[in-house]
Amino acid sequence: MRKVRRAKVLGWRWRSNPLRRRSDVLEAWIVLAAWAVAAVASVVAGIVGARIAQHTVDEDRTGRRPVTAVLVKTVPGSGRDVVTGIRYDRVVATVRWTDVRDGRATTRTGVMNVKPTARPGSTVRVWTNAHGRLVAPPVSAAEAATRVVLAGTGVALVAGATVLTCGCLVRLRVQRRATEKWGAEWEQVGRHWGHTTG
């Protein structure tokens, strides 16, 4: 048996024909509006998301400052996994540095990861936040740009998908109402025929 291939006619909902229903035209407008709004919303949301991410990254980078600290001691065995015995390229160490804020010097200590070759008494570079606590080094310019691009793209995709999903739900509602109306009209026609099948 040969398959019958149905030809798709682009824009059939826009063309005037006796079988076209009002709901068909309404569906066409819903699809067009959903795609247009999704495109605009994606661009706007992507730009806003990227700007917020850029602001966050800039604040994060400017809020950290480098300080020279003295290595006090390393934790023995911290450079090796207890279970597997695998050696790491970093060990846990206690460091001490002088935090100068508002003309006052405060000696602080903290814990950070250093190279296994670092010895007590040697100096290491650490990063502190606005409160003088140890923090991770700021992200590089390349990593910051990657974060901004990913944030903007992610927000744009979510915004576009949300709008398209809402448009799809509205379209399904219109289709359902049209089907219910068609069913009610079909029942009325069936009464005039005087009998029902099945």
Short description:
The chain has 198 residues and is α+β, with helices and mostly antiparallel strands. The protein has helices at 22-62, 141-193; strands at 65-74, 91-101, 104-114, 123-128, 134-135.
How would you sum up this structure, described in words?
With about 200 residues, the protein is α+β, with helices and mostly antiparallel strands. The chain has 2 helices and 5 strands, in the order H-E-E-E-E-E-H. The chain has helices spanning about 20-60, 140-195; strands spanning about 65-75, 90-100, 105-115, 125-130, 135. Helix 1 runs antiparallel to helix 2 (about 140-195). It is rod-shaped. The relative contact order is 0.16.
Summarize the amount of helix as a percent range.
Answer: 40-55%
- Give the overall form: rod-shaped
Could you give a short account of the major beta sheet?
A: 5 strands, antiparallel
Main-sheet strand order equals: 3-2-1-4-5
What gyration radius follows from the Cα positions, in whole Å?
A: 33 Å
- Strand-residue proportion: 15-25%
Structural class of the helix and strand makeup?
A: alpha+beta
Total helical elements: 2
Low-confidence stretches: none
* Count of β-strands: 5
Q: Multimeric state of these chains?
A: single chain
Amino- and carboxy-terminal Cα gap: 28 Å
**What order do the helices and strands follow?**
HEEEEEH
Q: pLDDT average, as an integer?
A: 81
